[in-house]
């Protein structure tokens, strides 16, 4: 399950960066909202999966409440999932 979470967190982080640095500029600068809709749905599914897996892994990995909150917060901070992988999953 931990390996699956590592892959999921990587994809969630990439999708978040795509939204921030590719699809949002396309939407607001170039008036092309379609890209944001597609990546947004993908990111939403990955984000929900990320949160669910964190709560499933928490007892198995014996993360404290503080660590669990930090891991969850990493999903809403740009580049946070990559830092979290290095700090908590390796």
Q: What would you say this structure looks like, in words?
A:
The protein is an all-alpha fold. The protein has one domain (2-89). The protein is built from 4 helices and no strands. It is elongated and about 45 Å long. The model has no long low-confidence stretch (mean pLDDT 96).
At a glance:
The protein is mostly helical. The chain contains four helices and no strands.
Write the layout of secondary structure elements.
Elements: H1 2-28, H2 34-61, H3 65-73, H4 80-89
Helix pairs in contact: 1-2, 1-4, 3-4
Instruction: Report on the biggest sheet.
Output: none
SSE topology string: HHHH
Average of pLDDT:
96
Q: Judging from the principal axes of the Cα atoms, what is the shape?
A: elongated
What portion of the residues fall into strands of 2 or more residues? under 5%
Parts with pLDDT < 50 across at least 5 consecutive residues: none
Number of domains: 1
Termini separation (Å)? 14 Å
Tally of DSSP helical segments? 4
Which structural class is indicated by helix and strand composition? mainly alpha
Keywords:
single chain, 90 residues, mainly alpha, 4 helices, 0% strand
């Amino acid at each position: 399950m931990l390996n699956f979470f590592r892959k999921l967190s990587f994809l969630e982080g990439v999708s978040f960066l795509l939204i921030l640095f590719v699809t949002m500029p396309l939407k607001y600068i170039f008036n092309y909202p379609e890209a944001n809709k597609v990546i947004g749905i993908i990111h939403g599914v990955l984000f929900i999966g990320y949160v669910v897996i964190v709560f499933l892994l928490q007892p198995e990995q014996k993360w404290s409440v503080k660590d669990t909150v930090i891991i969850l917060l990493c999903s809403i901070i740009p580049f946070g999932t990559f830092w979290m992988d290095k700090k908590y999953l390796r």
